[in-house]
Amino acid sequence: MSEETLESENFDLRMKISEVEYKSAMSALDKAGWPPALAKATHDSYDYAIGLKDGTVIFFERATSCGGNHEWVSLWFQSLHDGTTAYHRSFNKTHGIGGNDRGLQVRVSEIVWASDAPYGS
Predict the structure, then answer these.
(1) Is 106's pLDDT higher than 90?
(2) Stretch 26-31: mean pLDDT, rounded?
(3) Is the pLDDT of residue 100 over 60?
(4) Which of 29, 71, 82, 96 has the fewest C-beta atoms under 10 angstroms from its C-beta?
């Protein structure tokens, strides 16, 4: 077996393991009640928004699970959509939050909706 073939097979195996780990993580977050867009944000940094039960809207770039049963999510922010009306009424703007300093922890049970690319992709 050539070195190139062995390297290719190792790459394929790493991809399969990554895919299994990804599916397992998504399954665990789904069972914990995470909306699909919020779960996606744990593996794909992009542009997301969530809405809380009290009407608060939070824009964020990526998320990580925290707490033993995935009951909390840490959100990291970006400074996007500064000119939009929705942004100006959002938690980010009213609380002056932006950047990726330490994130914001939110109880997942307080989330009523989540959006992947709320302003389009």
Answers:
(1) yes
(2) 91
(3) no
(4) 96
Find the domain containing 12 and state its range: 3-116
For residue 13, the SS3 value is: helix
Which has the higher per-residue pLDDT, 87 or 20?
Answer: 20
Evaluate the CA torsion angle 22, 23, 25, 30 in order and state its sign.
positive
In angstroms, the CA 81 to CA 8 distance is 42
Amino acid at 50: I
Instruction: Please give the structure tokens belonging to residue 43.
Output: 């593996």
Which CATH number does the domain housing residue 35 bear?
2.30.30
Give residue 111's pLDDT: 97
**List of residues 6+ apart from 16 with CB closer than 8 A:** none
CA atoms within 13 A on the CB side of 23: 6
Task: Report DSSP letters for 51-80, one per residue.
Answer: EETTS-EEEESEEEEESTTS-EEEEE----
- Domains of the chain: total: 1
Report yes or no on 121 lying in a domain. Answer: no
